[in-house]
Amino acid sequence: MTPYYRRMRPRRTLPVALALAVALPWTALSAADAATPPTTTTTGTLLEVAIDDHDAPTSTWVLEGDDGSLTEVKVPTSLRGAVGAPATVTLDTSTATPTVTAARPSTTLTPQVSRPTALHAYVVDIVDPTSSDTTTLAKATATTKSMESYWVREGKGGITSFDTTKAISFTQANACDMNVYELWAKAAAKFPGVAWGWANHLVVYLPSDCAYGWTGLATIGGGYMMIVAPDLPTTAHELGHNLGLAHSNLEIKGKTYEYFGAFGPMGFSVNDYAPGTLDAAYQEQLALPKAAAARRTLTWGSTTTVTIAAVGAGAVNSVKVTDPKTGTSWFFEYRAGRGPDAKTFYATQYPFLYGPAGGLVDYRRGVQVSNLTSGGLITHTTIAADETWAATRKGEWFVDRGKRLAMKVVSTTATAATVQIVTGGTGAATPPRWTREGMALPVVVVTPLATKVGQKARVNIRVIDASVGSSESYAVPRITIDGGTPINVKLDANGRATWTASGPWAKGSYPVQVYYPGRAGQSLKANGYATVVVTP
Ligand SMILES: [Zn+2]
Question: Which first-to-last residue range defines the signal peptide (predicted)?
Fold first, then answer.
């Protein structure tokens, strides 16, 4: 039942820029200036290109000249602030890929969706007589149409309509071997006068047998898309990049895994499952009016119980709270696997993926907790025993790694989840109690009592085992002192015991381990640790 990433293909590097000087006025290098790198200054817009290679996602950069040329360039980190706005750009042209040495934006960027907008697609199907391409113009047009419908729905009032203004075929031999930026420029030239960006998107379909490692390219906040895999998940994802969105990632034990935030369109696409609804944090990034109306913002330092509807206008669809100390805005939404999410991967019976850390990630329905970073959206996981849950389920707590925020899923229905959110501290949060198979996760709390030299040491033990019913018994834990022989301890009906040493102890520190073996077939094992300090 393990899903596979259908769009993984053998890797091949991106075709590198072969002919750079397509349209830039290169400065001649005089003999006297031989020590100075040759530079040129021009005007245009720097764009980040997201390369969707599921093995190794990466970015490159292009300069979109005012004349419509596209040139691959290197952009040092210090100049990335100029990306996305019209600018005066200086390039060091001494290397095969020119390096930007200065970029002065001529305007400042404003949020892209400041008012509802109509979007337009310009479809180009590359017909390559040398290939065994199966992507027809009809297929390209139909795929684009499904992508447009997806984004009108997910645009939530920010995208008023999305049409295909023109769809053409374009014959190009050996298209797979061409520089993709040159191909973009050639395709764009078929639509003179169109300004590519928020409103106008150039959607180029390459031959389906181009054997790249990547399945699609797009420009972050730009208007260019290049598609190898002609399907809704790929096109919806690339359009998301054009709208300025980065990837959806998953946090597991403090590490972030790119693409594994697989609820919305900006994570992995698995098989042919539909992309899920746009994540709440991205809805806010795009300032979507209907999403804003359905978002409830909490005040930090409070305990609030709120019901979040999975879908539906007029209800609360997401909750946001901002940590004033870290500046992080947290978002909570209910992934119920119904309505627009019914045909997604996570709504299937076995929504498990092998994570890059080697463990299984369980995407079953629950409350998604996420935040935005400069590197994209991060969905935070709940760890239950050795299981990683991408969403938090009924009866369970999510606690952030900084222990500044906790959220309990109080109850769920088919369409809504009631959650309690505690901010400014984690309140009564306890670890998750159930695994995916319904096995209880016990917790062992070991508390040494004060002991002086010559006294018998005492240790309080408490076992929390959710599988124990009112007339049932706990399993028998074993206490080990300083690596010695394990000793059985009998717990009372409440899972508590006080263990007393058989004789007086000398001054020193004694490590104590309490092992709880779990009830047969009902709960998992657990360990608790403490140190007994014997003082004079
Ligand atoms: Zn991407």
Answer: 1-31
